[in-house]
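Deliverable D2.4 — example input (structure tokens):
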């Protein structure tokens, strides 16, 4: 039997620490070895307890979570999950935490998002984080490092009428998507994206990418057209599906049951792309734990679409691409920095 993942909870709220401990204790493969009300206590407990994964609040007394995370990633890199309330300010700070080396972000329970929902997702993210390669600011090529004019894929685009690019990612996907999208030229085919993120965080993520990219990037709304030079990111807690009316692609954004424990789900998007775009689509599955996207990517390949997976060496977690490869869904496996060129090669060959 494998040893349980040892978790340290860092949050200034005693109620949150108690709820997280109670919920995570329901999972036999996860052990909460301690908690801390602020980064100073957390620092000492990390030294003495040696956790496998840390959950970290952003707004705390004495030292904020971002400052603590920077120090942690510099001196003792550990897989860290940011757990924050759903506010615009916290969403921006969560993105900054991902830039600093956090492997994932999760919303605290609130409104329709219950403690039970949080428990399942937090446990999944902890399992993924335990397998992740901690990557500090000097290693992850985070969003902040892309502020220089990005390189653009060479070559004029030809024969791309009605072409479409579909991307799916989870743990580590913010960096992966930044790498791919910042290299897309302004006349590239329309792009649809699912990144596993909570509500509001996807809004901030899309806005940040829009500032960095030559293409327009925005959070999708129901009925948005999929147009050249535009990337639509599925909003957190909503599935996004591709639809077609005549020659026009557009997206449907809707609620629905979790698929592969996710909403939005990569499978939901990819299956709809297979149905409505067929051979006109290129699908890419990137870093993340689990199997979301494998079924949909296989449907895309069966429908004549071209399919690409990120390779193990460049993934933060080699789960979703691995499952897609295993299922026979993947035509080619390439490193993260080679994905843009591979996508355009497929578009030119199609």
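Example output (designed residues):
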């Amino acid at each position: 039997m494998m040893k349980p993942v040892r978790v340290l909870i860092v949050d200034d709220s005693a109620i949150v620490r108690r709820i997280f401990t109670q919920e995570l204790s329901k999972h036999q493969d996860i052990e909460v070895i301690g908690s801390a009300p602020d980064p100073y206590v957390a620092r000492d407990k990390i030294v003495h307890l040696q956790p496998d994964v840390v959950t970290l609040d952003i707004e705390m007394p004495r030292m904020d979570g971002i400052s603590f995370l920077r120090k942690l990633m510099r001196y003792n890199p550990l897989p860290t999950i940011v757990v924050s309330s759903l506010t615009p300010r916290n969403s921006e700070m969560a993105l900054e935490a991902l830039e600093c080396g956090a492997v994932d972000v999760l919303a605290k329970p609130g409104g329709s998002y219950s403690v039970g929902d949080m428990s399942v997702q937090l446990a999944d993210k902890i399992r993924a984080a335990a397998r992740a390669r901690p990557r500090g600011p000097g290693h992850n090529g985070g969003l902040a490092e892309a502020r220089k004019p990005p390189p653009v894929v060479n070559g004029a685009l030809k024969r791309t009428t009605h072409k479409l690019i579909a991307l799916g990612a989870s743990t580590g996907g913010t960096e992966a998507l930044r790498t791919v999208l910042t290299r897309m030229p302004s006349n590239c085919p329309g792009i649809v994206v699912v990144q596993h993120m909570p509500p509001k965080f996807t809004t901030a993520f899309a806005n940040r990418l829009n500032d960095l990219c030559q293409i327009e990037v925005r959070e999708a709304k129901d009925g948005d057209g999929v147009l050249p030079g535009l990337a639509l990111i599925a909003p957190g807690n909503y599935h996004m599906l591709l639809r077609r009316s005549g020659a026009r692609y557009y997206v449907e954004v809707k609620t629905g049951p979790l698929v592969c424990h996710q909403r939005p789900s990569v499978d939901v998007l990819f299956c709809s792309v297979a149905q409505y775009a067929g051979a006109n689509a290129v699908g890419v599955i990137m870093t993340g734990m689990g199997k979301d996207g494998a079924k949909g990517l296989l449907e895309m390949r069966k429908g004549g679409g071209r399919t690409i997976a990120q390779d193990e060496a460049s993934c933060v977690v080699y789960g979703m691409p691995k499952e897609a490869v295993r299922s026979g869904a993947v035509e080619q496996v390439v490193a993260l920095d080679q994905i843009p060129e591979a996508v355009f090669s497929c578009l030119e060959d199609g």
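The longest helix spans residues 115-131.
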